[in-house]
Structure formats: C-alpha cells, structure tokens
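QA checklist item 7 of 12: single-chain prediction sanity check.
[x] sequence parsed
[x] length recorded as 480
[x] structure emitted
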Amino acid sequence: MKKKFVTNLALLLFLNIVIKAFWMYGIDRKVQNIVGSEEYGLYFSLLSLSILMNILLDIGITNFNNREIARDHDQITINFSYIVPLKLLLSLLYAFFVFLAGLILGYTTRQFSMLSILVINQFLLSFILYLRSNISGLHLFRTDALMSVADRFFVIIICSVLLWGNLTHSEFKIEWLVYSQTAAYLLAAGIILIIVLNKSGSVQLKFGFKNGLLILKNSYPFAILILLMSFFNRFDSVLLERMLEDGKVQAGIYAQSYRILDSVNMFAVLIAGMLLPMFSRMIKQKEPVGEMVKLSYSIVFVPAITLAAIAWCYNYEIIKLLYKDNIAFSAGVFQILMNGFVFISLSYIFGTLLTANRSLKQLNTLAAITVLINLILNLILIPVLKAKGAAIASLSSQGFYAIAQIIAAKKVLNLRLDADYMIRLLLFIVIIFLISFISKTYIDNWGLGFTMICLASLVFASFFKILTPRGLYRIIKYDE
C-alpha cells in the first residue's frame, strides 16, 4: 500500500508541477499583470463566492462516493446511476443561492454576467471531481493523475492562443479567462466521462427520491465539513472586496499571494486525494495506519517548513519577481500566508484520516469553531490592516484547525506520540530557520540563498531521519 502511495504520488506531483504550475505562473499571473489588480480582484472575489457555495453542487457526494467505491468496487455502477441526476438537480439549487448572494451583496450587471459563467464553470468542475472520485476509488491512481491536469492542460492551450496568438487587436480581457475555463472544463469532462463509463459498464440513469435521500443522508456530513472549510479559506477575499473602498484592489493584492499559496497547496491536496481511499480501506480492514500517517506527515512537513522559511526571508524578492503592482505591501501578505501553509498541510493529513474514519462530528465541530474565529478576526483586522489583516486571520484560524485535528486524531484513533520523532522535527525547524536567517543576512544573491535553504532542508531532513532517500527507495521497491 505504501509503495503504491509513493510511486503514484511521484507521478501526480510531476504532472501537477509541470501543468498546474505553468497555468498559475505562465497564464494566470500573466493575465493579472495585463488586466491589473483591480480587474483581477473583481474576478477573484466573484470566483471566491462561486467556490464558497459550490458545496451545494455536491453535498459531500464526491467524498462519500470515493470512500464507498474504495471499500466496494462494485458500487460504481449503482452510485453512478443515481448520483448524476441528483447532481443536475443540485446545480439548480446552487445557482439559486449564488445569485441570491449576489443580490444581497449588491452586484452590478457586469458582475452578475461574469458570475453566471463562473456558476457554469463550478458545475463542470464539480462534475469532473465527481467523475474522478470513481477513478481514484477504484485505485486507478495513474489514470486519475492524468485526468487531474486535463482541464488545466486545455485552458493553457486556449489562453496561450489568446495571449500570444495575435488573433485580436484588443488587449486581453478578464472575461476571456472565464470563457476559456468553460471550454476547457467541457473538454475534460467529456474525456473523463468516457473513461468512467468504460469502467462502470452499462449505466441507466435513474432519479429515485428514496435513493437520492439515502445518498444525501450518508453524504451531508461531508458537505457540512466542506462548506465550513470553504468559509475560512475563501470568504476573506469576498469580505475584502465588499468592506473596503479600495476593495477590488485589496482583493487583487491578496490574490497575488494566494496564487502562490494555492500552487504549493496542490501538493497537500494531491496527497489527501490519494490517502482518503487508502485510509478508508486500511481502517475497514483494521490495518494499523500509524506508519502511513507518519510517512505522509513527513512528506508534507519538510517542504512546508522549507517554503515557510523561504517566504520569511525572501518575500519581497519573490513578489517582485512575479508581479508589477503593490510589491512592498503584497510581500508582507505573502510572508504571512505562506506560514499558514504549514498548518494547511497538516490539516490535509489528519483531516483526511478523520474523514476516512467517519469522525465527521468531531471535524465539523472543529471547523465551525474555526469559521467563527476566522470571521471575528477578519471583521476586526480587515478595516485596519486590509489584505494583511485577512492574511493574519487566515494564519490564525488555520493554525487552530490543524492543531485541533492532530489532537482529535490522536484521541479517536489512539495514535502514539513518538517523542524522539517530535524532537527531531523541532530541531529541523530551528536549524532551517537559522540557516534562512544566515543566508538572508550574509548572502547578497537571493537566488543563491534560496538554493542554500533548499539544499540544507534536504540534508537535514535526511540527517534527522525525517525523510531519507534510502527510506523512500525501500518503500518504492518493496510494498512493506
């Protein structure tokens, strides 16, 4: 099981680094630099609202489906027959509440027009994620790895033509980005649907009220969890745009740093996506999960601490390299947000473990408290510190949520605390930040300092036996 986890994680990371990184930094960043922070901030706040409500498209069905198929592969045909019609009905509910929110927030005609396309995009993306849950639930991780980048691959091609193809005489408009995503999602959804139908065999779509209610009854705890997590991950940009006179600009500044966080966050997301079916099966078969937790924890911990240290030292240099507007202020936002990545990574590991164990009551309680913390901090800090206040609120709430999940997982699953391992982790943190301070103080070339921190991270992770090349090689070679 561990061998499959590591080898397929390597494929996932390679594909996502190449495709999604180029999307974020080659296309999305280029679009923001062309249209400016205000225009992009408008798009980013609308996108955040559409994402905030997209749980209504799913009600936890995707996670439920993934877990059920991982436990019993024969469920794919039955689930597919009832879930697809159900998701179509849920899309109408989703659209209603998004537009209602737009009316309450006082959106303009142009904002509603863009929001309408974003609603369609979120439905397509939700459908893609559901289809992929069937593939990963069957443990076809390599196929899922390829499909995980299909939508971004198509949108890169379309946007590249619009940006550099000289097809129009006018400058790139932010609406073009939204339309390009629609076309890309349609193409990706069609391809993945063909794959799933091939695996499920003959399928007859059915809408049974009783079956629909049964699916929703089993999946709604997942929905509540995702909705609560969406609030403390996405609501900050909506509040920035609505609460401040220069809200669109502040949302655009926040988006600059959030893009970097989002790009490194995909590392933890991919691991969580692979761990959910694995943890589910291991728990059902009463296999010990401690070693898998430790392995996945180590894999995310080392790069998370390294990136936090780099952002602490070279926040200004990184933002200046990527963007043109509001560099100094944006650098401060970036420094704060990237420290939150450490907590986000840990949440994905222990949250996934608790989800696989169906400890959703504990997770939802913790998420509800986190939402309250995040909202209070945003309302207090945004009027005073603007985008930086939103970043502080995000860091604080993510820290609480991660630590609370670790405590809950230890209690519920009786995980043992390895004192020696924890001491080695602490020493690793201290040394990496000390080396970062030295490189910032005494090395003038920040690229050289950046490289030194990364190399030091690899050396000391191996020295403290947190993550060793030999250990990973043994796991890949032998299914221990």
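[x] summary fact logged: The two ends are 8 Å apart (CA to CA).
[ ] second reviewer sign-off
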